[in-house]
């Protein structure tokens, strides 16, 4: 596929996964069109290009589609010129993929369930996410971003903790990342949101707060259905 072919992202305004795809394109300096999807009434465009998971984001490059946000980040890094999103050294690349997968496997679900459940279940997920966050905190020692001086794959994987986490904390009253316990992660979130390129495609905080506040009953019901029976 010629890098010059048209690029589109099928995404949703309040999705951290969509943000990963957009942020990767912006960091590489690739112009793209954002096609906003109504997830309650999915379009033929989405269903045709992501028939298996039927989720956003989908990256369209010419007539080809790439699904799954972290695979999109890697595709964008390889298909286009511009600043590298993964390190050049093979071991460093493997480690970046390791930590990106760690965020998917060990942080996303406990974060969400610590936010939107209660009682004993919530206590357990709080413990789990705090242990995972402590490991991420250690990864930030002496570094501005997980990628070093610049934003890379792991930062994009962690984007949910830069804007969405604070909004969820405000709605639920649950406090996960504090200056006392996780100062580097707290500072990282500020630095990430302040970056001109990725900041330009982060949802507006006040608007996200409004969107998520309206969905809070739905999130709690969804979280309950995710608990082991
Ligand atoms: N693993 C996927 C997750 C994407 C995802 O969960 N997207 C949500 C929006 S935040 C979605 O499309 N949900 C629609 C649905 O589940 O029907 C990725 O990284 O791209």
Task: Describe it.
The protein has 229 residues and is an alpha+beta fold. It folds into two domains: 7-79, Glutaredoxin (3-Layer(aba) Sandwich), CATH 3.40.30.10; 90-226, Up-down Bundle (Glutathione S-transferase Yfyf (Class Pi), Chain A, domain 2), CATH 1.20.1050. It is built from eleven helices and four strands. It has helices at residues 16-28, 44-49, 69-79, 90-116, 119-139, 153-157, 164-172, 183-194, 196-199, 205-214, 216-226, and strands spanning 7-11, 33-36, 58-61, 64-67. The chain has a four-stranded mixed sheet. Helix 1 (16-28) links the parallel strand 1 (7-11) and strand 2 (33-36). Helix 1 packs parallel to helix 3 (69-79). The termini are far apart. The relative contact order is 0.13. Glutathione is lined by residues 12, 15, 17, 39, 54-57, 68-70.
Secondary structure blueprint with pairings:
Blueprint: E1 7-11, H1 16-28, E2 33-36, H2 44-49, E3 58-61, E4 64-67, H3 69-79, H4 90-116, H5 119-139, H6 153-157, H7 164-172, H8 183-194, H9 196-199, H10 205-214, H11 216-226
Parallel strand pairs: 1-2
Antiparallel strand pairs: 1-3, 3-4
Helix pairs in contact: 1-3, 4-5, 7-10
């Amino acid at each position: 596929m010629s890098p010059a072919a048209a690029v589109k992202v099928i995404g949703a305004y309040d999705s951290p996964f969509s943000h990963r795809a957009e942020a990767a394109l912006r960091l590489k300096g690739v112009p793209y069109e954002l096609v906003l999807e109504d997830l309650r009434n999915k379009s033929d465009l989405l269903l045709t290009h992501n028939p298996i998971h039927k989720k956003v984001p989908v990256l369209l490059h010419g007539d080809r589609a790439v699904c799954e946000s972290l695979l999109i980040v890697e595709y964008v890094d390889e298909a286009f010129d511009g600043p590298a999103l993964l390190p050049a050294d093979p071991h460093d690349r493997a480690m970046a993929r390791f930590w990106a997968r760690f965020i998917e496997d060990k942080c996303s679900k406990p974060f969400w369930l610590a936010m939107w459940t209660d009682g004993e279940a919530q206590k357990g997920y709080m413990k789990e996410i705090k242990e995972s966050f402590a490991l991420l905190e250690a990864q930030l020692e002496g570094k501005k971003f997980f990628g070093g001086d610049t934003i890379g794959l792991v930062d994009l994987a962690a984007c949910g903790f830069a804007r969405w986490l604070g909004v969820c904390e405000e709605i639920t009253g649950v406090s996960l990342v504090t200056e006392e316990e996780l100062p580097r992660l707290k500072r990282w979130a500020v630095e990430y949101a302040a970056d001109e390129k990725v900041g330009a495609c982060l949802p507006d905080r006040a608007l996200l707060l409004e969107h998520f506040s309206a969905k809070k009953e739905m999130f709690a019901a969804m979280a309950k259905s995710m608990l082991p029976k």
